[in-house]
């Protein structure tokens, strides 16, 4: 049995410490900035892709859980946010406190220890309270405060979460989505500190923002900044704030089965947008969307490009087959997709990355290495290296890891 390379996980999550924003924002904002309160739950439901939560009052019946308060928003921490350590049948829609959750969810040393247990050398973490691309701040009323909150989050994740880890935790920034020029400035501010990854929405129009097809080029300043700074645009399922479902009364399991769907829609958007013609260095990545669906979409997109581009509105901007664009610009990600790995030749072995999804309910922790061993059994040594490590190094411009692999005599294959 071949020893696996140490994993680089491109999709994990961090629960922000309760004092993150209070410690970093001026005191005049402390009554309205994101802040933590411990209160019981009055109501919590997740039906038809819609999450509803209402806090009780101090002294009400029920276990106290930790809530984020921000402007009019009341958002509890839940076991779905931080499920590791609970038995599967205990992973339910229920509030949780910082004391009850696994401490690696928000404490640095404990996170690194949990990564060691899991044979994970490096990890990139998506935010929790800001949501997967900073929608929380985009939806806020006070945009001056919201911009400070975005910058405070980025400062914290770079300076306190990632820097002390000596490269094991990889910074992933957020931007002020409501203003593409401010977003571009934040990309450059973070790039000056070595950040090469940013969150973005899989479907911005679901957030009430212009789509990536906007005729006036709304997002061009942001895309240009990402291209110039080698910043990969990362889109997590749910970053469009609407999870796939079939009806308002469908059980949550329907949406859970369809989580890949928005990634599918988004990838077609990008492949047929023309942005890869305008920005030939731009790279995008999808998190938690799995990969088994990709071959058919590439086949269909190529057929549309070949047969229908004359009337399809793409002839003058998509100048090569979408499947070629995919292999130059797009990364998929999986944690459990046997069919996808069987199709790796059709997807592209340079375009697949791995995740452990710690500490979410789908996480493979603490068995990620064992599961990866089973999943990659049919792959070559080169493909295993690329999927579990090498492609992440390329995607996130992890030059220190590339150099370390070479120095250690670990093969670094071409991409």
Protein topology:
Elements: E1 7-13, H1 20-24, E2 35-39, E3 41-47, E4 50-55, E5 65-70, E6 73-76, H2 108-117, E7 120-126, H3 135-138, H4 143-162, E8 169-170, H5 180-191, E9 197-199, H6 220-228, E10 232-236, H7 252-257, H8 261-271, H9 275-278, E11 284-287, H10 294-308, H11 322-329, E12 330-334, H12 338-342, H13 344-347, E13 352-354, H14 368-375, H15 381-395, H16 399-407
Parallel strand pairs: 1-7, 7-8, 9-10, 10-11, 11-12, 12-13
Antiparallel strand pairs: 2-5, 3-4, 5-6
Helix pairs in contact: 5-6
Write a brief caption for the model.
The chain is an alpha/beta fold. The chain is 35% helix and 15% strand.
Spell out the key features of this protein:
single chain; 415 residues; 35% helix; alpha/beta; 5-stranded parallel sheet
